[in-house]
Write a structure and sequence with these properties.
Elements lengths: L2 H25 L3 E7 L8 H21 L4 E3 L14 H4 L6 H13 L2 E10 L2 E9 L5 E6 L19 E3 L5 E6 L6 H4 L10 E6 L7 H12 L2 E6 L10 E4 L5 E5 L6 E7 L20 E4 L3 E5 L6 E8 L2 E9 L9 E13 L2 E13 L16 E10 L6 E9 L9 E5 L2 E10 L1 E15 L11 H7 L5 H9 L2
Parallel strand pairs: 1-2, 2-3, 7-8, 8-9, 13-15
Antiparallel strand pairs: 1-12, 3-4, 4-5, 6-7, 9-10, 10-11, 14-17, 15-16, 16-19, 17-18, 18-23, 19-22, 20-23, 21-22
Helix pairs in contact: 2-4
Length: 478
């Protein structure tokens, strides 16, 4: 080597080292995470139930320590069980409780960051509370669930809570609980400022049918690593725990386990972001434009290789392009395109949603669309694009589902102004593939709810609880 070549090599090595340092400082280091898919123990009293589950937590923390885990996350209701919802006062603890001190010792003894959920008593009020302990067992964050669902004895948290914490491995986490996922505050507020690269999602989500898809959609839309720990109760459909990476990959998930399970995965730093260019939909000669109502289905002709259709309700349009693999199609499969643009009610609230999606159907009746169907056709390409609302109170997320009840991967997702695009290639067993918009304004539920708002397909795409026993048990598993 000439002296000039040696100098050039040294400079390049210095630059590369500096780049690695900057990336590590900004995006954090790789770390090992554990989430617990947990079926709780039940005692004869509230205190016995909490202590039994705390002892189980200790066992999982010990196991996590043996695997070199840095942070372990337990689910919503894991210490108190869902039975506590009937009498939260009996199960609530004050923050100075010796039991909470013992939980801190679990973190300290195992040298891990520890996230637990419990019911907290403050004066005469009770809160659904997440606690975060550092490796020394010190309580470093307390978060009260902001948006309660059928938790009538609890008080919601304030909208301006601290919802982030930093770690000694260079990663800043955000945190929220279950139903909070469907609200911009905290699910998007937690990302403001750009410091949060990883999010902890503590949940008792029901039903499991769409649980993994909701988790994956948040990860894809926001480009973050997501640690999701769900409460296990197979009898009423609570399931769906996973670790998701910022590039949209599903690192590891549990959705059908009938017993508790520790999920461990090394999580790399958030992927370096590259500018995404949303592709334009190509309007072929066969392109069809349909002016629709607020709630409309359009049949997909599986005798044709290519379908290009635009469904519009006023200024809101969904553009679909579907390419079928003609050698691997099932002529008995039924697929429909759907556009939804209306308000929907759940619990005591009413909110605005827009949806563009491809759906598998069990039969020609639209209420069967989105339910589990034995579809086997292969799509070479699926593209869904919508011109959604662009303002600070609105957010969008992909929602996808495979016959395995897992989200579809890989997908390409991007937002450009008001245009949102979702695409994928070479997929078989597609149940749901689409985008939903949620406007983060709510009002009191009205009594004049029409059939569309209570339809099974809308609920399966967004939340699912109100119709679970009528639909999930009879339609998914019969």
């Amino acid at each position: 080597m000439t002296p000039l070549e040696i100098i050039s090599l040294v400079c390049n090595m210095w630059y590369f080292t500096l780049l690695l340092f900057v990336v590590s400082a900004y995006y954090g280091q790789a770390y090992k995470a554990a989430v617990v898919h947990y079926y709780p123990a039940v005692g004869t009293t509230a205190e016995e139930t909490i202590l039994k589950n705390m002892n189980e937590y200790r066992k999982y923390a010990n196991k996590a320590k043996s695997k070199g885990v840095d942070i372990i996350v337990f689910p919503e209701y894991g210490l108190v069980t869902t039975s506590a919802l009937a009498n939260p006062g009996e199960y609530s603890l004050e923050i100075q409780s010796p039991i909470i001190a013992q939980i801190g010792t679990i973190a300290r003894d195992n040298g891990v960051y520890l996230v637990v959920n419990l019911f907290e008593r403050i004066d005469d009020k009770y809160y659904n509370t997440n606690l975060v302990f550092d490796r020394n067992g010190t309580l470093i964050l307390k978060y009260h669930k902001s948006h309660l669902y059928n938790e009538f004895g609890l008080t919601p948290g304030t909208p301006n809570q601290t919802i982030t914490f930093s770690t000694d491995f260079g990663v800043t986490f955000g945190i929220f609980t279950c139903f909070d996922m469907l609200f911009a505050n905290p699910s998007l507020r937690v990302l403001e400022g750009g410091n949060v690269t990883d999010v902890i999602f503590v949940l008792g989500w029901l039903p499991s049918y769409i649980s993994l898809s909701i988790q994956h959609g948040y990860c894809v839309a926001n480009g973050v690593n997501l640690l999701a720990a769900n409460y296990g109760r197979h009898i009423d459909g609570r399931s769906g725990t996973g670790i998701y990476l910022s590039d949209g990959k599903v690192a590891k998930v549990v959705n059908d386990s009938v017993k508790s399970q520790l999920v461990v995965r090394e999580v790399p730093p958030k992927s370096l972001e590259t500018e995404k260019t949303c592709p334009r939909s190509v309007k072929e000669k066969t392109h069809t434009v349909v002016t629709t109502s607020k709630y409309y289905f359009h049949d997909v002709d599986l005798t044709k290789k290519f379908t290009s259709t635009q469904l519009c309700n006023g200024n809101f349009c969904c553009t679909f392009q579907v390419t079928l693999d003609m050698r691997q199609k099932n002529p008995t499969d039924i697929y429909k395109l759907m556009i939804f643009d209306d308000s929907v009610s759940y619990d005591k609230l009413e909110a605005n949603f827009r949806i563009c999606t491809l759906l598998a159907c069990r039969n020609e009746f639209v209420d069967s669309c989105g339910a589990m169907a034995n579809v086997t056709s292969t799509f070479k390409r699926i593209s869904v694009q919508g011109n959604f609302t662009k303002d600070n109170s609105t957010f969008y997320r992909p929602i996808t589902l495979h016959t395995s009840l897992s989200p579809l991967t890989p997908t390409a997702y991007c937002q450009a102004n008001s245009s949102v695009h979702l695409g994928t290639k070479n997929q078989k067993g597609v149940i749901i593939f689409g985008i939903f918009e949620r406007k983060d304004t709510v009002s009191e539920r009205r009594d004049d709810i029409d059939g569309a708002r209570n339809s099974k397909i809308f609920l399966v795409l967004t939340w699912g609880r109100p119709y679970y026993f009528a639909f999930f048990k009879s339609s998914v598993f019969d």
